[in-house]
Amino acid sequence: MSEEIELLRQVVSQIGGGERPGQDQMVQRVYQALHNEDHLLVEAGTGTGKSFGYLVPAMLWALKTGDRVTVSTATLALQRQIMVQDAPLVAKAVAELHGKHVEVALLKGWNNYLCLRKAAEEETEDGALISRSAGKYGVTATGAEVVRLREWAEVTETGDRDDLVPGVSDRAWAQVSVSKKECLGDKCPLWANCFPAIAREKAGQADIVVTNHSLLGIAATGRAVLPETGAYILDEAHELIDRVTAQLTNSLSGAELESAAKMLRRAGIENTLSDSAAEIDDLLDAVPPGRLRQISTELNDAVARLLGAVQAAAEEAAQISEAATKQILRSRLGDLVTVCSELLSDAVAAERIVAWKTEFADGGSALYYAPLQVAATLADSLFEMRPVVLTSATLQINGSFDALAHQVGFAFPSQGPWEGIDVGTPFEPAEQGMLYVAKHLDPPGRDGYGDAALDELVELIAASHGGALCLFTARAAAERAAAYVRDRVDYPVWVQGEDQLSTLLMQFSSDLSSCLFGTISLWQGVDVPGDACRLVVIDRIPFPRPDDPLVDARNDLVRKAGGNPFMEVSVATAALLLAQGAGRLLRRRSDRGVVAVLDSRLVSRAYGQVLLRSLPRMWPTSDPVQVREALERLAQSAQLS
Fold first, then answer.
1. What span, in angstroms and rounded, lies between the C-alpha atoms of 22 and 12?
2. What pLDDT digit, counting tens, does each position of 572-609 carry?
3. What is the pLDDT of residues 461-483, one digit of tens each?
4. What's the predicted TM-score (pTM) here?
5. For 53-92, b where at least 16 C-beta lie within 10 A, e where not — what string?
6. Is residue 580 within 8 Å of 393, Cβ to Cβ?
7. In what order do the strands lie in the sheet with 231-234?
8. Angle, in degrees to the nearest 10, between helices 254-266 and 323-344
9. Which of 522, 519, 515, 577 has the alpha carbon at shortest distance from 544?
10. Per the omega criterion (within 30 degrees of 0), is the bond before 624 cis?
């Protein structure tokens, strides 16, 4: 028996588990990739136990080589599972077999930790619309949250926002946190007790660092936010491109410029940023929302004038003596210089970056831009000269790993060899689940679906006596459906946004007759095993919006290469998300249930076959009577009928 499998057996014995061929294969292949400095894509279906599948070889490799492994996830839930449950079990087994301790540390973005200096300040940031919760300014809900945060600052050991229960709003948290670029560093009088600095120090001494894809995206820009590492293992890798792209997205708006102008004036620096803000706003007003294929001459000239004004203000700001204000201005003005410089380059016209205008409900607008592709950034900044493992329950599109390999840069010659493997799942989808497609319903239109689809939803929930996780592609659709169902059934219906997601999931999992309605964040990372989730309803095929600027640009890229944009972009994106949504049903070998898709296009259109191949091979039907009878039997077995 190889040493990695021996270690896996030790781990599994601690939890009373059994052997899983797919998990064994994953452990061996990941260990091999780490030793050979290869790139590996591993599709590991639900039930494989993939976190042990990479933590076991990662810890063993780190122990033997002395190199650090960085493990990155997309969701907080998996990050917490690794730190609280999985990593301690593997570390214990390593200690028992090898007599050595493997150190594991959690590392998040700087502003996920409370800043002691800001928490000690009595005044709040300009424009935050926060009153003190005591004294002459009276009380506001956000002000009360800030006071609670300041009290928490005196007792917390980590300063980690996720350790604060109940949580607080983003607006309140902004009053007690700073970004890395705005931190005073060792010039801060409270640096010795700085929570993010302590977290980074621990990470720098750890063998395994657990982080997230967003921080990985920042690291890809060249900023030293992560300690040096010998290897990367990325779980929930299907989310990597979107998370990294989000971190590399920048914006320019009159509101941002006006905020910087006010801060400069408070620091005694006269500036013309307010004039630039008004000019930028006026020019953006004349631009329709959506993608900008090029920057107009007028906007280009305005950005050039803005760059000069920002550079002049930055020179004066460098002379400020007050450390906190100086650091914040240095960060914000530096960001503006970067934004202006990139917009003045040929990157938009050359389609290296995608620019678009967004309008807000309050009448304001902003210009955004993001890289069209992040493959080169990931390959050159992170993945070169070290082994990288990407894993998820859904990585293949139409039976191939090629699309993702190209998107993350594995296909570049500098990256060396890469391989994709599918280790399967210990589940028996055809025996455990039924895939129902409501073939008789009209396809959804631009305005969604009609009452027939809502009536179908009510009948499905009534047959299953609740226990339904209902997934929608739009918040408005989820809210409309929830209201419709609430008027027609007596089961509790929870809707995403009505409370914290963790609270809603707890309520859903603890009440076998309840239903949970939500949007994209519920399509993945939700783990509710057993009878509580015996019906998963998907309202429509989750195609990306065709007017999304990045989707439009990616379509252009595929079209120029002679490909089919709809199949290579829209269908490929939908396939991964659809598989993730359907994957919410079977979480344990004992689970039974139905995945119901209310979009008839899944079986009536040719592309539906590609989408169906991405789903678990459950027993298929389009018979509404048959599926309701199956749901009634499930309800009876759960003793709910």
1. 14
2. 999 999 999 999 999 999 999 999 999 999 999 999 99
3. 999 999 999 999 999 999 999 99
4. 0.88
5. bbbbbbbbbbbeeebbbbbbbbbebbbeebeeebbebbbe
6. yes
7. 104-106, 208-212, 69-73, 231-234, 388-392, 39-44, 418-424
8. 150
9. 577
10. no
